[in-house]
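Sequence in, structure out.
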Amino acid sequence: MLVKSETREIIDAFVEASKAKDIDLMAPLLSDEGEFQIQDKKGETQTTNKAEFLKWYTGRLSECSITSVAYDQCLDCVIGGPVALLNDGTFPRLAKDISERGKSGLRFECTDGLISEINFCFVFLKTENSSSPKETYALREFLRGIIPKE
């Protein structure tokens, strides 16, 4: 799946707003009808609305800065979907315990020029994830030859 330039621009704007910790720049990028994943106080993934996501994300941004960004593609729920790994996949989602995958990214879906979904992603085309099973490695190698590069 090639990421449309408009979609990439929207994702880039979200990442830049994250780096600047500027929710006022970020909020207009998100669809009012969108669905966005967060972690609750127990570390469980929940799907929420825009307002709840922004509240949670603002809290997470207040705890650290975005120091690195890598772009990749999803190899699980939306094969080829655009993913941003912030701080080497350690932000914004926290691993509940050592049994969870080492990295997580934000997978984006855009509709009508807005981000309509943000979901946590754990299986990537280019980025190794220390807890990915060997089957995922084989699939990634196979798909590298099929999925167009961004």
